[in-house]
Amino acid sequence: MSAEDNKKKLNEGKEQAVAVVKDVVAKVNTIRTGKPKIFYGAIVGVLVLYFVAFSGRNPEVISEGSVNNLKVGATYMLKSPNANGAENAKTAIVKEPCILTGWDRTENDDLSICQAVDGTQVNVLELKDAFGVANNCARVLIESGNCMSKEGWTLASNIIER
Asked: Beta strands of 39-96 (E only): which ranges?
């Protein structure tokens, strides 16, 4: 297609759009003058629906997650934030820093060191920035539980105060 053909099709489309808008405006004007109760009733109905749909919103700001102020050398506990109160929830301890991992990782996996149960005590050995967040990953030494004496990485969001 040449540039002239494109311009011609564009103008045809523009003319069709203008014709449709003129037709809609003419029909709305006909309803407005011939049946004003229906016209203004429809406007009021739309406004009522708008206010009903948008008036029940809670203006409260959703709080951001709590900031983890972890310190190297301090002892903390593991708590999987995604387990939501599940019994025997586990947190993956992995070999590489800042790996996003599922809780269903097995210990035979290349990256996993172990699956530590919630409540396991850990000592933070090192902190690392990841995903644009300062100190988002922590290298930990497991001090209790099924992974005792093992060392690996977990997300800082998995670590809470004792």
From this structure: 75-78, 90-94
Look up the domain containing 29 and give its range.
3-55
Q: What is the pLDDT of residues 25-44, one digit of tens each?
A: 999 899 899 999 999 999 99
What is the C-alpha separation between 92 and 116, in angstroms, rounded? 6
What stretch of H or E contains 58? Answer: none
Average pLDDT, stretch 133-143? 91
Measure the CA–CA gap between 160 and 162, rounded to whole angstroms: 6
Structurally, how many domains does the chain consist of? 2
Q: Kindly give, in sequence order, each residue whose CB lies less than 8 Å from that of residue 105, ignoring residues fewer than 6 positions away.
A: 92, 94, 111, 112, 115
CA 52, 57, 61: angle at the middle one, nearest 5?
Answer: 165
In a domain, 61, yes or no: no
For residue 29, which phi and psi values (nearest 5 degrees)? -65, -40
CATH number of 88's domain: 2.30.30
